[in-house]
Specification:
By secondary structure, the protein is an alpha/beta fold. The chain has four domains: 49 residues, no CATH class; 149 residues, Beta-Lactamase (2-Layer Sandwich); 154 residues, Alpha-Beta Plaits (2-Layer Sandwich); 257 residues, TIM Barrel (Alpha-Beta Barrel). The protein is 50% helix and 22% strand. A hairpin with a 5-residue loop joins strand 18 and strand 19. Helix 3 runs parallel beside helix 4. It is elongated.
Length: 737
């Protein structure tokens, strides 16, 4: 026995004895306390095969039972798996068919359990998917056709031809509102058994916005008192109808009405499909409307609705090709309004816009429907006359246009007068391209303006040379104004009875060389058109004030110096302030300054003009009407406005020495002016006879080449001393006698 047994009580041990395996356990008996002896170890052993006999038997039985149970379970599982796998395989195969969009493959599962229920659900889902994909395919085809057919009618026909594939119905009608006349509509009818729609124009007897205000998803109607737009469906056998508005945003474009021969069973999905159809129709109609708006914005003038430059050029190019093919003749009229800028500046842009619209209306009344009117911009219009017989036709139409525009325009209760200058080019003689015809017509129009306005001129080749000169003149004028190269000359104003020099008019001169001066008749119109007249006008005021101070220091005291003011300068913001500032810089009393304004400016009944004139008068600046009698003269504005001087235009003075008519006119002007307390000046006096007639009629002051040309400031001073010295000497001699 091992010594370790003495140390371990209760231990289970194995050992071999006489070739037998024993299994035992030890107990230790302690004797030291009572007997003073080492403890005894008690060992009890049994052969191990006897101890483990029950365990061995259990192992054999358990293994046999376990293997038998396992075998039974395997057999049962195999049977159940086979029973379940067959429907699962069928379901998996059918799911594959569905994923490949083969929705009509058979699915036979009759297991009587949940697999059979699952198969029923799959079949129902497959039918729904088949219907959904069919509708999507139809919708996609409709969308493609819509994109390729921009016309609303074609879009509706496409939708109706496939409508029953999307929403089952007995018959249907699409009602499309007329954008120009909302109470009129076009009905597109799809009758029972037919595939092609029929159209009919109808009147709308219901307020559609009110009808669908709370029912944008659609409303049901019966055959009793149906709206007029769906009565045809009732006559075709519909007993019930479902109406869906064709609407985008807040705008109704029409109505889709589905007719049914019996009470319909429209579920939510079918109602949704009807709304989808209406959504596509609304989108197509809104797209067409937007495209038309974009085209209109790109090709028509927003203010007048006339063709713009782009559309005019396209149409002109087309007519050129047609005329070339047919060897025809066509004409281009380039129209520019005279004095429009005055009205636009004085009355404001709103009045100017109204005038432009009224001019467009009058132009439309004077041409044929086949002719094209366009507004190029501002106050410029063009008219294309196609298929004309000759210049006589064009002259007649141009004359009618000029006469029409001469009649007064009433704007905001006030009458306004304008005229027009017209330039004409003919194809093929005056140009063979759009650019040539427009450019040459523009050139002819400017020649009409230079010739006195309110007239028509046909293009001539010589005009191109004049146009080139004008461009060069504008460039040179800009340079000379910016460099201060303009010079002021002064023409004396003489008392008609004594011939004493009592005033002067400041006149601008453009010296090109020491021997030649550019005529104001050449550069003033260019300065007006380019706006250079404004800085030129203020420069003239500066020089006039400086000259008066120079003369006064030399003992020459004149009653006034007159300076011309253009309408464009007069309408500049701060005009009065700038005039007063110039007077202040030179220390000139405002009473010595007289501003000459044109008659056309006073014809505008505008409060602002009155305010400016009254402010000038409050500062004691004198006012004169220049070129009186050349416009639409009226006593009214002479009474209304604070004007001190009337200047008779030289066109009347030129003929008073050889015709009785002009003498009567000048006599009437002088008498009228004196009756209103105005001073009268006659300009352009060229000979003694003219002077004598004016003096006899009582004209107050005279000026013209008979007495003196305009002179530089120093020469003018010498002339005044000499002339007034003669007058004084003559008076002394007359006094002595």
């Amino acid at each position: 026995m091992p010594d370790s047994l003495a140390q371990d009580s209760g231990a289970l041990i194995h050992w071999r004895q006489n070739n037998r395996k024993l299994l035992g356990q030890t107990w230790q008996i302690k004797l030291d306390r009572h007997f003073g002896h080492e403890p005894w170890v008690l060992l009890i052993g049994t052969p191990d095969h006897e101890v483990l006999a029950d365990v061995t038997d259990f192992r054999v039985v358990f293994l046999t039972v376990f293997l038998s149970a396992l075998l039974v379970a395997a057999l049962i599982s195999r049977s159940q798996i086979r029973k379940r796998m067959v429907p699962l395989e069928k379901l998996a195969t059918y799911a594959g068919h569905v994923s490949n969009k083969r929705f009509h493959e058979p699915l036979d599962v009759d297991s009587g359990d949940e697999f059979e229920g699952l198969a029923d659900s799959l079949r129902k889902m497959s039918r729904g998917l088949a219907s959904h994909f069919s509708i999507l395919a139809t919708m996609s085809e409709v969308d493609r056709n819509i994109l390729s057919s921009p016309e609303p009618g074609a879009v509706v026909d496409i939708v109706l031809s496939r409508l029953r594939e999307i929403v089952p119905c007995h018959n249907a009608v699409v009602t499309v509102l007329d954008r120009a006349a909302p109470k009129i509509a076009q009905n597109y009818l799809l009758f029972a058994g037919e595939e092609q729609s029929k159209t009919k124009r109808i009147k709308i007897d219901r307020d559609l916005e009110l009808m669908f205000s709370d029912a944008q998803a659609g409303i049901f109607l019966d055959r009793e008192k149906p709206p007029g737009f769906c009565q045809a469906l009732v006559l075709d056998g519909a007993v019930s109808m479902f109406c869906v508005p064709i609407i985008k945003g807040e705008k109704i474009y029409g109505v889709l009405t589905l007719g049914y021969s019996e009470s319909p069973e429209l579920d939510g999905e079918l109602m949704h499909q009807a709304s989808e159809v209406c959504g596509r129709l609304a989108l197509a109609m809104a797209t067409v409307e937007r495209d038309e708006q974009l085209y209109h914005q790109a090709h028509f003038d927003n203010l007048t609705g006339l063709a713009n430059r782009q559309l005019f050029a396209q149409r002109l190019n087309m007519e050129i090709r047609r005329a070339e093919r047919d060897r025809g003749l066509l004409a281009l009229l380039f129209i520019d309004l005279d004095n429009f800028k005055i009205i636009n500046d004085v009355r404001g842009h709103s009045a100017g816009d109204q005038l432009i619209r009224k001019v467009a209306e009058r132009l439309g009344e004077r041409v044929r429907d086949s002719d094209l009117i366009s507004r190029l911009g501002g106050d410029e219009f063009t008219i294309l006359l196609s298929s004309i017989d000759g210049e006589e036709d064009v002259s007649r139409i141009a004359k009618e246009i000029l006469e029409s525009l001469q009649k007064p325009f009433t704007i905001d209760g006030s009458q306004h007068f304008i005229s027009a200058s017209i330039g004409v080019t003919l194809y093929p003689g005056d140009g063979r391209t759009v650019e040539e015809l427009l450019r040459n017509a523009d050139t002819a129009m400017y020649r009409a303006k230079e010739a006195g306005r309110d007239q028509c001129m046909f293009f001539q080749e010589e005009m191109n040379l004049a146009a080139v000169r004008r461009v060069k003149l504008e460039s040179q004028l800009r340079t000379v104004v910016e460099s201060g190269g303009m010079k002021m000359h002064f023409q004396p104003l003489l008392d008609s009875q004594t011939l004493e020099v009592v005033g002067a008019e400041a006149l601008m001169r453009w010296p090109v060389s020491s021997e030649r001066v550019t005529s104001p008749d050449e550069f003033i119109p260019v300065a007006e058109e380019t706006g250079l007249i404004v800085p030129m006008g203020y420069a003239a005021l500066e020089e006039a004030c400086r000259a008066m101070i120079v003369w006064r220091t030399k003992g020459i005291e004149l009653a006034s110096i007159a300076v011309n003011v253009s309408p464009r300068q007069f309408n500049e913001p701060g005009f009065v302030s700038e005039v007063l500032a110039i007077l202040g810089r030179h220390g000139l009393d405002p009473r010595f300054l007289e501003l000459e304004i044109t008659e056309s400016l006073l014809l505008e009944e505008v409060q602002r003009i009155r305010m400016v004139l009254e402010e000038l008068c409050r500062h004691e600046i004198r006012l004169a009407i220049d070129d009186f009698g050349t416009g639409y003269s009226a006593l009214g504005y002479l009474r209304r406005y604070p004007v001190q001087t009337i200047k008779i235009d030289r066109s009347f003075v030129n003929e008073i020495d050889r015709a009785e008519g002009p003498q009567k006119l000048t006599r009437a002007i002088i008498a009228m002016s004196h009756g209103l307390g105005k001073r009268v000046v006659a300009e352009g006096v060229e000979n003694q006879k003219q002077y004598e007639v004016l003096a006899a009629q009582g004209c107050d002051l005279v000026q013209g080449h008979l007495f003196s040309h305009a002179m530089p400031v120093d020469t003018f001073a010498s002339y005044v001393r000499k002339q007034n010295g003669k007058v004084m000497m003559k008076a002394l001699i007359a006094g002595d006698t």
